[in-house]
Design goal:
Blueprint: H1 8-20, H2 25-36, H3 40-51, H4 55-73, H5 78-84, H6 90-101, H7 105-111
Helix pairs in contact: 1-2, 2-3, 4-7
Length: about 110
């Protein structure tokens, strides 16, 4: 598949959706596809061609990076961080965080307190 060139407006729309949508990853992918006017299948293929990863994996990575930033501040609990970063459950957030970073969110947070 050829690389897909998105317009500036499409990129801005995706950034806005990622930053502000409290949706699950799948719902967010569906919303982004609808906003671009593409089918969900085409959107996923185009996204993978452009970014080298699936939309769900990218969304998860962005949410985890946001979570790490919030945990470093020490202002938010693990539960608040999970909610603010778009995770539906604290247990899934903790599982994903540990799988990706090698430490629990609580241990990560305590490093910076």
């Amino acid at each position: 598949m050829n690389r897909i060139d998105l317009t500036q407006a499409e990129w801005q729309l995706m950034e806005k959706l990622w930053d502000h949508a409290p949706q699950t990853g799948r719902e967010l992918t569906e919303a982004m596809a609808a906003q671009t006017g593409w089918s969900e299948v085409y959107f996923r293929r185009a996204f993978r061609a452009a970014f080298g990863t699936s939309p769900l994996a990218y969304i998860r990575r962005v949410r985890l990076e946001n979570a790490k930033a919030l945990l470093r501040t020490g202002y938010y609990s693990v539960t608040e961080t999970a909610t603010r970063c778009g995770f539906d459950s604290v247990s899934y957030f903790s599982y994903t965080f540990r799988r990706e970073t090698g430490v629990t969110p609580s241990a990560y947070r305590e490093r910076f307190l």
